[in-house]
Design a protein that fits this description.
It contains six helices and no strands. The chain is an all-alpha fold. The protein folds into two domains: about 80 residues, Orthogonal Bundle (434 Repressor (Amino-terminal Domain)), CATH 1.10.260; about 40 residues. The protein starts with 7 loop residues before the first helix and ends with a helix. It holds the Pfam family HTH_3.
Length: about 120
């Protein structure tokens, strides 16, 4: 995402996107109250407390340095997405495969478009 650092609000949205969750699901995973997550998501507060940050790392595997500063890796070292059920893993894998197929389609379109445009210029 360029050189600009994201805000806490933006990082909460990145968590949603990368984990495929919403505030309610993140709350269930971490034990963090939904209003606390909502306030961060909406920018009503930008200073999560220590318990919030620790829960993100311990229960969701989010690197607390990344969450606080925007620097480093998204997932904490030696963490995986084990807190998701098998069905959720299958769904995420399917979503990733669909996204990869879409990316491949877009790449083909760009190549075809570029080739067509270069033919017209000769």
């Amino acid at each position: 995402m360029g050189t600009e650092k994201q805000s806490i609000t933006e990082r909460v949205k990145i968590i949603y996107d990368k984990l495929g969750v919403n505030g309610s699901k993140l709350g269930r995973i971490t034990g963090i109250p939904k209003p606390t997550i909502y306030n961060l998501e909406k920018g009503k507060t930008s200073n999560p407390n220590k318990d919030f940050i620790e829960a993100l790392e311990k229960k969701a595997g989010i690197n607390m340095i990344w969450f606080v500063t925007g620097e480093g890796e998204f997932l904490a070292k030696d963490r995986d997405l084990a807190f998701f059920s098998k069905e959720e893993h299958v769904k995420m894998k399917q979503t990733l495969l669909e996204q990869q197929e879409r990316i491949t389609e877009l790449e083909r379109f760009i190549i075809d478009f570029t080739m067509e445009k270069s033919k017209k210029s000769f």
